[in-house]
Design a protein that fits this description.
This protein is an alpha/beta fold. About 25% of the residues lie in helices and about 25% in strands. The chain is built from eight helices and 14 strands.
Length: about 230
């Protein structure tokens, strides 16, 4: 399996390309702001043909280039229904208008072909089997994408998890923007993240790769979730 990626120049959002092998079809995960040129270079380098764009959630820094990428390649975008409206109006998840945020220099459009992500489904795309886990908290429609690690990058692991902005190395995604919820995030960490195997490779939406075992041992947010509830005396 081939997994490669790079951070965007704006917000450092990680855009990933996943394929069964070089020369095959691929999926693109979270094409953010200003990624088109670098993305085309990676596709050409590995002789890849995109089959779909997968979105971990609907925030603009993860979705900005989805319409031009999908339009140029003639492919669908997949997003959880709870974040579908953010593809039409990303301002609904921001504390300010996008034009105000970027000084009016960036123009956004939504993709023409949008398909829903369903919790627990196994998507079969581009020769890959990708399991979708709904993990709200950062946004209402945040998801994890899990797939067998295979021989990707020589990793000694059974599974890779593209965690979006649910889990980072040493941290988690913020929950204070519209659609965020710390209560939902805590449940997602407990029910979606902690059950994963320690050797699971985590490829986050921002920052460096990590493992579930490392985060289980050191991430303060996971440690808080794992802390036993206080007992009450009679």
């Amino acid at each position: 399996m081939l997994i490669t990626g790079f951070p965007s120049d704006v917000f450092g959002t990680n855009c990933y390309v996943v394929a069964a092998a070089p020369g095959e079809q691929c999926v693109i995960v979270d094409p953010g702001i200003g990624v088109s040129q670098r993305l085309d270079e990676i596709l050409a380098e590995h002789r890849l043909q995109p089959a779909a764009v997968l979105l971990t959630h609907g925030h603009l820094d993860h979705t900005f280039s989805v319409a031009p990428v999908c339009g140029a390649k003639g492919i669908p975008a997949y997003v959880h229904p709870a974040d579908r409206e953010l593809l039409a109006d990303p301002a609904k998840a921001l504390s300010m208008d996008p034009a105000q945020l970027f000084g009016g220099r960036l123009t956004y459009s939504e993709p023409d072909d949008v398909a829903p992500l369903v919790d627990g489904e196994a998507l079969t795309i581009a020769g890959l089997e990708i399991t979708v886990d709904h993990a709200p908290g950062h946004t209402g429609g945040s998801v994890l994408f899990r797939l067998p690690a295979g021989a990707a990058r020589g990793w000694d692991a059974d599974e890779v998890c593209l965690s979006g902005d649910v889990l980072f190395a040493g941290s988690i995604g913020r929950t204070d923007l519209p659609g965020g919820s710390m209560t939902a995030m805590t449940a997602s960490l407990r029910d979606r993240i902690l059950p994963l195997a320690d050797d699971t490779i985590v490829l986050p939406g921002h920052g460096e790769a990590t493992t579930i075992g490392r985060e289980r041992a050191t991430n303060p947010f996971l440690l808080e979730v794992m802390r036993p509830a206080p007992t009450r005396g009679l």
